[in-house]
Amino acid sequence: GSSGGGGVGGVQVLLGELDIPLANFEASLRAYCEAGATEQPFDVATVDRTVPEPTPLEQLKAAEASGGAGAPKTDSQHREALAAMPELAHLGELVKSSAQVQLTEEDTEYAVSVVKHVFPEHVVFQFDCSNTVAEQQLSEVSVLMDTADAEDFEEEAIVPLKSMPYGSSAPTYVVMARAEGALAFGKFYCTLRFNVKEVDPNTGEVEEDGFDDEYQLEDVEVTATDYIAPQGVSNFKRSWDELTENEATDDYGLGQRDTLQSAVVSVLESLNMAACEGSDAVPPNARSHTLLCAGSVMGLAVCASVKLGMDAGRNVAMKLTVRAEDEALCALVHELVGQ
């Protein structure tokens, strides 16, 4: 334990030397006190020295705190993990991975989240699954994705998860094909499917006969943001001047804002692009500002110039000019802001 003047710190030093878990010490001491008046002094030797097993929820929280299972992975970490899977080896180079999104409420029996991986002609959905109930063993886990509102996609493969771990998470994958290079969008209705076997909490024995069950997850959407990756450029003007072929400009109202700085933050969030030339910092009390940002979509360059102005009523107006290597990408970026 850590040292410290008196208090818990001192107790931990003492217990550390005696090799006793603090929780066990507290429990024994509480039991001793609750027993009422007694001739016997409290005996440290009676305290159980085995370290209590953390519950699955505690394990998950500890992993998140230490940047373990719950910490977001970088694109390069995703790239390595996916490349190591023979079922996905033929998909080519990973273009971009999205942020992790939770698909279950906090205190449900199953914890499921999704990460979307964009490949040249596919999107791979990685569903990280965790079982939070010790009395059940879940196997043959997969996610059924209904494409009724995602017609530009076609399911190509499912990589099931043999068993859903208790207290940690493991992935099952769905591979969706999209027309070559096309930016397909849509909403999927998702159902978690699995086989359940009861576990005897006393003996840990698993019943032989299981039954199939399913659980409704939140919908998963693929939007324009999933294809845009922030990509800083060393010289914005040069990149801007190189993209003269395709340009689209439009005006938008962003409503009332306290400062232009808060408008810049939300625009960057919507566009999912990288601010250039330090233009994401707005001088205090500024009434007008230009944000320059850059990104890439499926390897093609996109640049945006965002002119912002604030009137006396704190209403913010925005003039967005987008240049890109492909005409469709200009429209795509405008769509993001219009949403």
Automatic annotation (TrEMBL):
Record-linked Gene3D superfamilies: Coatomer, gamma subunit, appendage domain, TATA-Binding Protein
Keyword Hydrolase: no
GO biological process, one term: protein secretion
Boundaries of every Coatomer subunit gamma C-terminal domain copy: 225-336
Compartment annotation: Cytoplasmic vesicle, COPI-coated vesicle membrane; Golgi apparatus membrane
Leader sequence residues: none
Topology relative to the membrane: Peripheral membrane protein
Location, primary (coarse class): membrane
Keyword Nucleotide-binding assigned: no
MF terms in GO: structural molecule activity
Domain Coatomer gamma subunit appendage Ig-like subdomain positions: 77-223
Entry keyword set: Cytoplasm, Cytoplasmic vesicle, ER-Golgi transport, Golgi apparatus, Membrane, Phosphoprotein, Protein transport, Repeat, Transport
GO cellular component, one term: Golgi membrane
Cross-referenced InterPro entries: Clathrin_app_Ig-like_sf, Coatomer/calthrin_app_sub_C, Coatomer_g_Cpla, Coatomer_gsu, Coatomer_gsu_app_Ig-like_dom, Coatomer_gsu_app_sf, TBP_dom_sf
Pfam families documented for this protein: Coatomer_g_Cpla, COP-gamma_platf
Family: Belongs to the COPG family.
Identification of the protein by name: Coatomer subunit gamma
